[in-house]
């Protein structure tokens, strides 16, 4: 990754927005600008990026050994346990009138900075960084593709596993282990929802056992070399009920139609609308209760969000999920999810695992 170039583009946007200093604390903005993934601690870690001064990465002394030195991008300044790191950071921003603070910064830091810099105006750093992070370069797309390929193998492998009799938690643990075995640095989530539980989009796995005729919704993803994966596939045990198949056929068509519409220049909200139009023809549009997709990169959820009201037009390098779902409380729920990258040649799917409703034992 060319972090020096990223810092340069960030400064250009700061200039455009009239931002004097950007403060990137533990989180994706810090990783984007420095390559350093800080451990989320109560101890302050922050990159102080001004429009003219050299960037300084302020870290606790005990974390210095974890930082990969990039002297052409930033210098490292450590603080000891008996020092006040907020005062150290504030001292570098005394003359700043507009400060962009990372969206992930803890409230205690923002409140302390507001007290130390009473004349400064504070804005979310995402106003500066989100448009930059949303557009992925070739290296980032390659990392997203590697993560997607890893979970593809897992999703396809589930088709040959016996799910009947297992609990949701057992399958969840299996998915976490498989993601780590496949090269992910960590598993971010693994939703396993069976039978009527699948009607809750973000169901927390329970001790419910999979029964004959159950649908099994598996939505899982992790972080691999700093970039995220996210996939959802559906399974049914032994036999598919006609109402489930009909709903899945409508859902599959909605996902394919939305994917095809995700071309460069198309407003995000229109991609969402295309799926709803398809589902409306099958009288299940009212069962689609969330947006069609979210951006993905250093975070599992980031810009651009494909949702009604978002008129942002897709640009080359935008990466996002396409994941329509329909939910019937007390009965079943269905969702299909792939990661897609907008390209001048047309939308590119990163996930290739089969998308049919797989019948398993």
How is the main sheet built?
Answer: 6 strands, mixed
* Residues in β-strands, percent: 15-25%
**C-alpha Rg (nearest Å):** 23 Å
CATH architecture of the largest domain: Alpha-Beta Complex
Helix content: 25-40%
The CATH class of the largest domain turns out to be Alpha Beta
Indicate how many domains the architecture comprises: 2
Task: Record the strand order, biggest sheet.
Answer: 4-3-2-1-5-6
Distance between the termini: 45 Å
Choose one word for the global shape.
elongated
CATH topology of the largest domain: Creatine Amidinohydrolase
Gist of the model:
The chain is α+β, with helices and mostly antiparallel strands and 361 residues long. It has two domains: 3-132, Creatinase/prolidase N-terminal domain (Creatine Amidinohydrolase, Chain A, domain 1, 3-Layer(aba) Sandwich); 135-360, Alpha-Beta Complex (Creatine Amidinohydrolase), CATH 3.90.230.10. It contains nine helices and 18 strands.
Structure report:
- There is one protein chain.
- By secondary structure, this protein is an alpha+beta fold.
- It has 2 domains: 3-132, Creatinase/prolidase N-terminal domain (Creatine Amidinohydrolase, Chain A, domain 1, 3-Layer(aba) Sandwich), CATH 3.40.350.10; 135-360, Creatine Amidinohydrolase (Alpha-Beta Complex).
- The protein is 32% helix and 24% strand.
- It has 9 helices and 18 strands.
- It has a 6-stranded mixed beta sheet with strand order 4-3-2-1-5-6, with helices on both faces. Strands 7, 8, 9, 10 and 18 form a 5-stranded mixed beta sheet that branches. A 3-stranded antiparallel beta sheet has the order 13-16-17, with helices on one face.
- Helix 4 links the parallel strand 5 and strand 6 (121-124).
- Helix 8 (242-261) packs antiparallel against helix 9.
- It starts with a helix and ends with a strand.
- The mean pLDDT is 96.
């Amino acid at each position: 990754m060319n972090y020096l170039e990223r810092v340069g583009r960030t400064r250009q946007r700061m200039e455009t927005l009239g931002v004097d200093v950007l403060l990137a604390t533990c989180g994706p903005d810090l990783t984007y600008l420095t390559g350093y993934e800080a451990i989320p601690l109560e101890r302050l870690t922050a990159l102080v990026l001004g429009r003219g001064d050299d960037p300084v990465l302020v870290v606790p002394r005990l974390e210095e050994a974890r930082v990969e030195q990039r002297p052409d991008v930033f210098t490292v300044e450590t603080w000891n346990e008996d020092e006040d790191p907020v005062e150290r950071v504030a001292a570098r921003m005394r003359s700043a009138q507009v400060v962009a603070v990372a969206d992930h910064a803890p409230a205690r830091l923002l409140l302390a900075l507001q007290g130390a810099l009473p004349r400064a105006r504070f804005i979310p750093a995402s106003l500066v960084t989100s448009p930059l992070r949303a557009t992925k370069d070739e290296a980032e797309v390659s990392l997203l593709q590697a993560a997607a390929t890893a979970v593809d193998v897992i999703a396809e492998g589930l088709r040959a596993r016996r799910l009947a009799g297992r609990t949701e938690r057992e399958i969840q643990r299996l998915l976490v282990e498989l993601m780590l075995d496949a090269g992910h640095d960590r598993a971010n989530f693994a939703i396993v929802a069976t039978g009527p539980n699948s009607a809750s989009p973000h169901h927390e796995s329970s001790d419910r056992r999979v029964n004959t005729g159950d649908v099994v919704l598996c939505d899982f993803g992790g972080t691999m070399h700093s970039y995220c994966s996210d996939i959802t596939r559906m399974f049914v045990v032994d036999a598919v009920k006609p109402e489930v198949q009909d709903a899945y056929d409508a859902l599959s068509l909605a996902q394919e139609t939305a994917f095809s519409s995700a071309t460069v220049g198309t407003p995000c909200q229109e991609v969402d609308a295309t799926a709803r139009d398809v589902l409306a023809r099958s009288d299940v549009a009212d069962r689609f209760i969330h947006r069609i997709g979210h951006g993905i990169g250093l975070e599992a959820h980031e810009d651009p969000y494909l949702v009604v009201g978002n008129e942002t037009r897709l640009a080359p390098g935008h990466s996002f999920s396409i994941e329509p779902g329909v939910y019937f409380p007390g009965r079943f729920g269905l969702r299909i999810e792939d990661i897609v990258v907008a390209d001048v040649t047309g939308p590119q799917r990163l996930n290739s695992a089969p998308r049919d409703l797989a019948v398993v034992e």
